[in-house]
Structures are given as structure tokens and as C-alpha cells.
Amino acid sequence: MAAADETFEQFEEDDGADTTLALCSAGRKRLFSKELRCMMYGFGDDQNPYTESVDIIEDLVIEFITEMTHKCMEIGRTGRVQVEDIVFLVRKDPRKYARVKDLLTMNEELKRARKAFDEIKFAGNIK
After folding, report:
1. Which CATH number belongs to the domain containing residue 55 in this structure?
2. Residue 103 sits in which domain range?
3. CB 79, CB 73: distance < 8 Å
4. What pLDDT does residue 124 have?
5. Rounded to 5°, angle at Cα 64 from 86 and 97
6. Alpha-carbon span 76 to 44, nearest angstrom
């Protein structure tokens, strides 16, 4: 029990925003650790980055996703997240907007390729 008290006392010294983030992330299962490690390595970090670094980046990613989701739910159809809402939110940030457009275009190309592949596969089974 003393270890838990010491951990809490460490958080009390920081400002409120950091306390909330640290307390929320402490008991949460890590969702993106493996992917973030690979991304960090791809962007020049060590092949095995510090767990603390991965955890901090994951906290930032989760916070970004949460904020964007809440903002999306407030615009457009209330309570629902739609692609158009995300495009609307990132429209003023050229890098994010370009990336969203690229991903949407790639998604459409993959759908068409899958459909064409399934049609060829289906036609081959009929003969």
C-alpha cells in the first residue's frame, strides 16, 4: 500500500492536467505499443525504444483520437462520427488534410481492386 501512496504523492506535485493523464494511463491496457515501437524505429529511434517513451507517445495518440472523436460527435450528425466530419475538422491543416485525402483515395482503390479480384475469382468458379 505504501508504494501506491508514494506514486500518488508524485502526481500531486505536478499540475492538474499531467496528473489526470498519468493516472488515466497508469491502469489502462496499452493498445498501440507494438505499432508505435515499429513507427518510432522507422522514424529513427532505437530498435527497442524505452517503454516510457512508447507510453508517452501512446498517451498522446489516445488523447488526440479522443479529442477528434468528441469534436466529430459535436458537428454534423450529433453523436455519430462520419468521414465528412473528420475531413471538415482537418481542412485547415494542409498536412493532415492531404493525408486524409490520400488515405480515402487509397481505401477506394483497395475496394475496387478487391471487387475486381472477387469477380475474377467468382467467374473462375462458374466454369
Report:
1. 1.10.20.10
2. 91-122
3. yes
4. 66
5. 35
6. 39
